[in-house]
Amino acid sequence: MRENTAVGLTLGAPVVIARATPEVTGWGPYQFPRVERLADGALHVAYHVRADSATAYGLSSGHAVSHDEGRSWQAVDTPSSPGGLLLPNGDRLLADAEPSRPVGELSLPAPFASVHGSYVDYDYYRLGHLPAELAPAFPFRRCPAGETTWRREWATVELDNAGDVRTVTEGVFVFPFFEQDRVRVASDGSLRATTYFPPHLGHRDKVIRAFLVRAVRSDDFGHTWRQIGAIPYHPDPAADPLWDARDGFTEPELHDMPDGAVLALLRTMEGNGNGPLYCARSEDGGATWDTPRVFDDLGVWPQLLTLGCGVTLAAYGRPGLFVRATADPAGRQWDDRVTVVPPRAAYTDTCSYADLIALDDTRALLVYSDFTYPNIQGQPCKTIVCREVGVE
């Protein structure tokens, strides 16, 4: 095993992207930021402005753009230049979400299974028992190469024996979708995405866990997808006394490491309390995985980014927010984490969801939320913030 070379990280001063008024304190608004590079070179940050709920899927977000690499930001209704994921064929692809449908508007049969999750409950239905209007799944927006206008489309996605399962939760019917932050161009030029819905089903539709991490691949630039592998929940009881109460692995981040393997970071924290962040490696592009092991004792929505200099960064937290670095191409040895937002009680400091984007070979921009960032009057406000992360 290669010995890790310590990486020196520097954090730039925080820069405000968007700020709520002091009265906005509920969970959801001014959280969950995502950063991307637009076709015109500007940076774009989208962030949540509604409750953190299935009832908000597919609804509008807040937006801000920067034309100076994150040193200043302007609020916009929508970006004037297309963003999304730049594909090898020149198209830009943006994973979308269809607004959820209140169950009071629908005529549904009895679910074939129900689960009491740690946060909310889930009812499960087979697609063949539902009205045709509920069949669409996995929406995208595509901006073809050389164009500037988005087109809406629905992908064809082949999953395992739960691929035709649909979910009702929080009083709404959810149309399956991919999270944009988890759709990536793999090292071989194919597209790779992850999902942890639908549930892990066993014999006779027995629900083993509410979630199962699945890796899917597209060889036609996102029109069709097929499942290539899965990472079943495999906890470490010595590291997590609540292991058997967990919903399963969630919020998977799959990343091509410099040594050619794929590294996965996997959340377990949920409504039962803090849980470890796990990691797993695949040597065959995501088809098979080694046994997950503990990466850290906390972490939600992990993010990974390899800079041109070969250093890989990880961002995660809860409570607090941290960045961590490795110069090990395999990602087996990591330096100690560096604090970005000091941890307090969970849900009072930051949502701990962050995003990373490279600025050059040795610098990245980290985008995150800070719930007590002072406004010009000194009042603590929920704020979307960015900081430059430098590698020495």
Description of the molecule:
With about 400 residues, the chain is mainly β. The protein has a single domain, classed as Neuraminidase. The chain is built from no helices and 33 strands. The strands form 8 sheets. Strands 1, 2, 31, 32 and 33 form a 5-stranded antiparallel beta sheet that branches. A 5-stranded antiparallel beta sheet has the order 9-16-15-11-10, with no helix packed on it. It is globular and about 55 Å long. The model has no long low-confidence stretch (mean pLDDT about 95).
Strand content: 35-45%
Strand elements, count: 33
CATH topology: Neuraminidase
Q: How would you describe the shape?
A: globular
Straight-line N-to-C gap: 24 Å
Number of helices: 0
- Give the number of domains: 1
Radius of gyration: 20 Å
> Which blocks of ≥5 consecutive residues have pLDDT under 50?
none
Helix and strand composition category: mainly beta
Mean pLDDT: 97
CATH class: Mainly Beta
> Largest sheet, described in full?
5 strands, antiparallel
What's the CATH architecture?
6 Propeller
Throw out a few tags for this protein.
5-stranded antiparallel beta sheet; mainly beta; 33 strands; globular; Neuraminidase; single chain; 43% strand; 392 residues
Short description:
This protein is mainly β. It is 0% helix and 43% strand.
What topology emerges from the helices and strands here?
Layout: E1 9-11, E2 15-19, E3 31-37, E4 43-48, E5 62-66, E6 74-76, E7 85-86, E8 92-95, E9 101-102, E10 113-116, E11 121-126, E12 139-143, E13 151-154, E14 156-158, E15 165-169, E16 172-174, E17 184-185, E18 191-195, E19 200-201, E20 207-209, E21 213-218, E22 224-231, E23 250-256, E24 262-267, E25 277-282, E26 293-296, E27 300-306, E28 312-317, E29 321-326, E30 338-341, E31 355-360, E32 363-374, E33 380-391
Parallel strand pairs: 14-22
Antiparallel strand pairs: 1-33, 2-33, 3-4, 4-5, 5-6, 7-8, 8-12, 9-16, 10-11, 11-15, 12-13, 15-16, 17-18, 18-21, 19-20, 21-22, 23-24, 24-25, 25-26, 27-28, 28-29, 29-30, 31-32, 32-33
